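Please, does this match?
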Amino acid sequence: MQDDTPKLTKGPPSKAITSMMAPMIIGLFVIIGNGLVDAYFIGQLGYAQLAAVSYAFPVWFVLGGIVMGLGIGTASLASRAIGSGNKEIVREIATHAMILSIVVGIIVITVGLSSIDMVFGLLGANEETMPYVREYMEIYYWGGIFMAVPMIGNSVMRASGDATTPSVLMASSAIVNALLDPVLIFGWFGFPAMGVRGAALASVLSNVLFLIAALCILIFRDNLIQFANHSLKSIVESWKKILHVGLPAIASNLIAPLSTALVTALISSYGQTAVAAYGLAGRLEAFIIVILMALGGAISPYVGQNFGAKRFDRLEEGFKFSMRFILVYSVFCIVFLYLSAEFFLGFFTADPEVIKIAKMQLLYCPWGYGFLGVAAICNGSFNAFGKPMPAMTISIARTLVVYVPMAYLFASFIGIRGIFVAQVVANILAGIAGIIWYRLLFKQLSNQNT
């Protein structure tokens, strides 16, 4: 914040983007690795417990989708303000966004706790897994507010070009979670053995530490949170601007867990072992595609700052670099999973049926990873431009219009493998649509600003 020249508007575009990607990759690797640690320890309890936590995946995506949507809206405003040199607006946006995240966190906790049986019953949890679902979610929901506030703060830090601090905070939180998992799940060091309750409590406690650390940095180091001299009118005005981008982003993010919920319900028709396999493969997939997601996350502040500074030449160079990167990495993913999927699955379960289904998922789905990465950078760019509707449209079309109907259709003909084929087709179409729409919008915006 001290340099008058915004960080991401200078130097080679590839260096600016990778400088944001690198710490994000490390942080996300640790977080997703923590998810695998969760799966490992919970898997030791039994497949019913592993299936119960797998049912929580769509709900976790809902919580994350809401928080990420608010973060996208906040980062879009903040990065453009930084690019144009208006630092006071950045402080105002950050403060008002934090207040909004508290309000949303309270709403999520209230609604979540009152709807556990209804939601997870619809997802397909049966009498064997539902008790474990209740045990997990009755504690896990309380971590919502502790997750919301620091995640919004992280979005502001990234918008300013600081990807290292948010990644360190998230990675530290994930490490604490991983360390607490066996202690609370199995009752090490004299603690009571809490089973799946312990896994949920570990998540909540790590989020509390995440909240404290993030607030200290935002208030004392960056001076981005200032609670004085804020009228109700100014807060509401900021909320409107944040939600202009944030609401479509939330809608886009919530489409994913909705489609995941519908697909989970379909997969549950193949048995609880299929649900466990789907959850396990999903965790491994997240670990593999984290680099593409980090690229999508890095693009947003890069585009926002350069768009605010009217550097369309840098936007074009950054897009071309991202496309080349995606091509190389997506090919790597296909080859890597083809050679190693069964090996890694063996670390988490010895159930042959779980391994069979999860391996099938990990062999089919990588063919769509590259196109999913393209859609991610295009959607991140749309939001950074302050044009969220294309991103929402592509997300809805990819999931509810293409993926879910095709999953049900293909599954009726070729069984569970049809679900994975449908995912590949949906990602390919989304990537193609993203490129076409990005090119049209970029041409329109560049003409307006020349």
Summary: Residues 53 and 322 are 34 Å apart (CA to CA). The chain has 16 helices and no strands. The first helix runs from residue 13 to 43.
